[in-house]
Amino acid sequence: MEKNGLGGKSIILRLEMNTQDIKFGQVASAIFEAGGDMVAIDVIQSSGHITVRDITITVTDSVDIGKITDTVKNLKGVRLVNVSDRTFLMHLGGKIETQPKIPIQNRDDLSRVYTPDVARVCAAIQEDPKKAYTLTIKRNTVAVISDGSAVLGLGNIGPYAAMPVMEGKSMLFKQLAGVDSFPICLDTQDTEEIISCIKALAPAFGGINLEDISSPRCFEIEQRLRDELDIPVFHDDQHGTAVVLYAALINALKIVGKSIDQIKVVVCGIGAAGVACSKILLSAGVKNLIGVDREGALVAGGNYNNSMWQWYAEHTNPDKVQGSLQEVIRGADVFIGLSAGGLLRREDVLAMADSPIVFAMANPTPEIRPEEVEDIVGVIATGRSDYPNQINNVLCFPGIFRAALDCRATTINEEMKLAAAEAIASAVPDDERNPSYIIPSVFNQNVVKAIRELVVKAAIKTGVARRIPRE
Prior knowledge:
By secondary structure, the chain is of the alpha/beta class.
């Protein structure tokens, strides 16, 4: 069933009603008493005493959809024709399609877009491969690639089941930033095979967006591809999350009146996103950052099987603090959760510094629910849309790829990520910023434009841009 913005489900009931036996108000009352909230009513057919209506209903997770349908079926004068899940309806046949930019209406058109005239275009690109950017879709197209090994909160569900997520990503690229993209789910989870496949696909694309690839393989896959390709490669689960988190922190620190180089930050959950978030915060000036995972704080000199944890331990936790989350969080100014629901307690937040910032980003259940600590925090944010301050990587990837494509960047470097974060933060006006509004809406049309401007400047300044785009 569909998850709506309030953490519930949405269905459509098609009902055939005999108005001689029952009034619509009786049906509405029965649905409400069974736990359903009607949000839309559409008359499909009306003839004599018979009417057919589609009723859109939302319910909370605790409500049994079967109870509602059974209630309706037992009403005299009502026939339940069909029950539809709105989300499944939206996915029928997939969510994207390919459309030609130019209609082929006659033989002359055909000869120009295909044989024989297309051969001249092929020859021009063979002579100068850079012309692929002007004469093919490469200039504005990104590959959205996954192996299905770490999809949302579902885990290793494989390439077929990952496809709807990648299609959704392509929709967001197009709608928010005008970037064309294509979802590709690889039927392999072998690191070398994934790298080889993506390298072989790269000529058709201006950028590669890696998605939902499990840790620690994702680190090697991204780094190898960045080293071996001359187009941007961006693992959104890592860097998109990191950029938006840093943007939120910029505004949160303004609210609580603290400086980024003076704060103590505790990061809980050192997977792909946790590492990337930590790296961007270190680049931004955080000096005292401690990472905590299942075994406690990561400390230099420890013996870790995960090579990324080894790196992490050597570059963080300057005071070599040891212990569990509950021990290391004492006196912390910022908590960043990228782990699992319920790990943080109210007493842990009370042990933090004055006006603590809590980013509880585990989904669907945050490390601590905002209502448990809203009276004792300076700012709180989550990854959920039903609470204020949603930290969502959709704020980042459309704009950062728009910029990278427009300046034909060879990579997306740390300076470009920092610039993207500054742009996102700036989309919240100074006179509107408050503890419940530190991050803009994903539908804020100024976000992509602001990211593009600052990221292009960063790409040019750092020497990774191959062209200066028109404004």
